[in-house]
Amino acid sequence: MFSFHFRLARLLRLRETARDESRQNLSAAQQAEDRIRARIAALNDTLTSLRAQTANASQPGTIEVQRLLEADRYEITVQSQLQVALDQLQAASAEVDRCQDVLVEADREVKKLEKLRQHQVSLYERDENRRAIKQFDEAAARRHAG
Questions:
Q1: CA 93 remoteness from chain centre
Q2: What is the pLDDT of residues 98-121, one digit of tens each?
Q3: How far is the C-alpha of 30 from the C-alpha of 59, rounded, in Å?
């Protein structure tokens, strides 16, 4: 009695490896996206804080013009950094989407091969059962004849 051997086992392992790599790539892309989102949140917090300080410094009374100009320049710098981060977020989100698509396709390929393997195992088991039944029938026929 032979044991089942899936002829495409190597291909299945390769596809599983590709799927695992796709998962790792997706995870890395999501982490990069999360870091950019955290950076954007920090920049937004900085802008909020800076605007509150500017509003307080602009209250009636003694106004430090130089300080307001520096704050204004700093706000422009932070807004520029925020725009760069938003552009990076857009690219990172596109990369996450691409990685998700690659993972879905890799998973689909693995599932196809697993389904084929399962089908072949079922056929093998059916054939083995038929052989076993045939052997039992032959043994019973010999006992009955002898």
A1: 12
A2: 999 999 999 999 999 999 999 999
A3: 44
